[in-house]
Amino acid sequence: MSGLLELSVAEAATRIQAVELSREEYFDAWREAAAGDELNAYLWRAEERAVESDGPLAGVPIAVKDLFCTEGIETTAGSRILEGHRPLYTATAVRRLTEAGAELLGKTNMDEFAMGSSNENSAYGAVLNPHDRARVPGGSSGGSAAVVAGGLAPCAIGTDTGGSIRQPAALCGIVGLKPTYGAISRYGMIAFASSLDQCGPLTRDVTDAALLLEAMQGGDPCDSTSVGIEGGIRAPRGEDLKGLRFAVPADLAHDAIEPGVRAAFEATLRRIEELGGELAEVPLPHAEHGISAYYVIAPAEASSNLARYDGVRYGTRVEPEGDVVEMYEATRAAGFGDEVKRRIMLGTYALSSGYYDAYYGRAQRVRTKIAEDFAAAFSKFDFVVTPTSPSVAFGLGEKTDDPLAMYMNDFFTVPMSLAGIPAISIPAGSAEPEGGGPQLPVGFQIAAPAFAEQRLLDAAYVLEQSLNG
Amino acid sequence: MAELEAVIGLEIHVQLSTRTKMFCGCELSFGDEPNVHTCPVCLAHPGVLPVPNAEAIRYGLKIAAALECEVAPSSIFHRKNYFYPDNSKAYQISQYDQPLAVNGRLGGIRIHRAHLEEDAAKTIHLGESGRIHGSGGSLVDFNRGGTPLVEIVTEPDLRAAEEAGAWARLLRTTVRQLGVSDVNMEEGSLRIDANVSVRPAGSETLGTKTELKNMNSFRFLERGIEAELARQRELIGAGGTVEQETLHFHPEDGSLHPLRSKEQAHDYRYFPEPDLVPLAPTEAMLREARESLPELPEARMRRYEEKLGLSAENAAQLAGDPDEAAYFEAVCAAGDGIEAPTVANWVTGELAAALRQADGDSAAESKVTPEALAALIALVGEKRVSHGSGKQVLATLVAEGGDPAAIVEHEGLAQISDSGELESIVAAAVDSNPEAAEQIRSGNQKAIGAIVGAVMKQTKGRADGGEVNRLIKEKLGI
Fold this sequence. Notes:
The complex is a heterodimer of chains A (469) and B (478). With 469 residues, chain A is α/β, with parallel strands linked by helices.
């Protein structure tokens, strides 16, 4: 039985298509594994298989972040305010996966409305890191990362607004891909920051990530900002990195990176050179302002996106004595957690008349500058590489009282989100956490120009094969 | 103190008559059961995204073309954020600093801008105030929520309430003719707010304006503006100053009341709508909008006056109503040798009166075919039927339809052409009205009416009025 769970998604799908493996048997094995969730990673688990379709993912069970609407199945976005909400429709990304044959295994825990880097902001409790249950799995797609890393699902999807796929993938030691903005439809993905949100896979290897990406990508008439990836995505391949130019941001040396993470990162750089890749430093002068710009833009959009949760049409409603305005206030006060409230207030302030130019307008200009920095880098280089996260998984409760320290987790991932370009985190070594303890996974981030996912996956695959071998 | 000049600008919301809503596939409706035309998108369920309605964009471009606007090569949608139960997303998708179209004109009034947006749902607040604050409950009908709107904003070029009303009517006719809206003020598919201020005549600076809302007919629009102008003039005359505020028009008594300050203290926190890409119309879309324009009332009015020689009044009346205009032109086309100004007089005068009297339909929907009216005008023009008899024939046409010549025959209305017969009738009438005859002789021309009346009575109106007058004067020797 346990042998089944070791198969990669690509291998399992191949065996199912060749009728060497039964869909029922494979699904049941994973359902049983998911039932053993001790990480608080699932919010909902399938009790039976849905109607099956054939396709490249036939018979592949998949865990889906609870930010994706699933028709008739409770979808909370990790928030009290959507407790009991059963959507009337299914998100395009999920529908494409099931049309390709995937079967919904469960909905995963997450930071409320995807706001967080530790999964401690879920209204349904923190998720535990499978490598060390006293530590966080990262966030906001912490549940999706934990189920894959913890052997509770063969693959998962999550969403990434400023690092919410890549950072938990790094902290849990798996592969996480944030595609180009517009590669996958956002329809049915509960909005946090609309100009940044992007769906992507969390998998055990790069090949599986490519398989899920291909199933989900494509323009969608329901999302005006979606275009898909021209030519689609095939299984990644390659033997070496000859002729490929990798850029390391010049300012990286000054940044607060844990020594163990830095050592693992430098070891990976050496491996790139061994594989024939060329390394050079590149200036990304505006990237250091990424966090500041991000924490204006994302809360601004969130303050508007989350205004619809008012208790009028669905979800939680708290009805005090008084008129509808008082009902709004009571509902939102009870329904949202602290971090969500903090960001709504930040965003509302940033958009206020008289402050718009100083905050939102300025942040958008920084965003443009960061995109220009990347464009300049990609005129000379194929990829930009960084550590995914400045630290390995940190302890539960360690940063909950210090929002700024928490926000710094996104330091390396936010610039790519602001530039709308694809970036992948792959497991690349391990490091001892600060303060000592057993080794924990370290993630290596590779970013590529917009819609260059195939090239990105090919390079990540070569590096992965080498690191695993 | 110098006279205070009125400065009026209008903000018009036109509900587009597309098949579906602005950003989702729900059908538009009016008067259906509440909340039947809804979906996750227009109810703002979690995860949904707006998809712009291509037809609404085409309609918007048509309006922009009709108003001679410059269309922006790329315009963007913004979110206008506010909490209210009529607004499911808690923001309205509208356009802000890069609207669809700018710098147009209509009927001599400059158009500041025209942009696309979505309508709110309909709310009813229970309780005495009828407002949200302090209400015992609020009912929402989302059928209207998401209906496509074009908002048109004029420059403050209007100088009187009546002028504003007349211009608003011209706008309605123009938009109606484009076939993009029902433009019905009572049903709310046309909503007009007015920005009103006064300033010393000749001054170039603008006074403080107030915004007038809820005037749901042209008459109320004029009354509201009139009342506000009077209020502002009185206030300033008494040494006061106008405060910028929004005033609600009460149709029951024509009064204006300010909204509570809490209700107007909005900071809409506009920002570009990240769920939509910029709207960049192609050259083909712009060409299609221009080429699809019918002849609009303003151009038609000019043609009627300049090419057809109609009076300004007749031209305005006929050109302002596309159906009436089409009928008028059909009569002109059906008749041989009848003059357009004569036809215009008949259509706006005799025919309109006859239809009114019969509580009948519009000319186009009446039993009077353009051919019949043309034939009747010709009979009168050729003096085969007197003008008075002509009106009788018209009454029959309105009631029953038919062919004027046959009606003339059947009702014996042919004009008396035998001058001997008419002469003897006139002689008899003069003899039997000696007092009137005496008055005429002594210079009272008005007295002739009594004798003409007697002749007309005797002939049942079949005599030509001019001829009768001439014969009476001949008989009396003047």
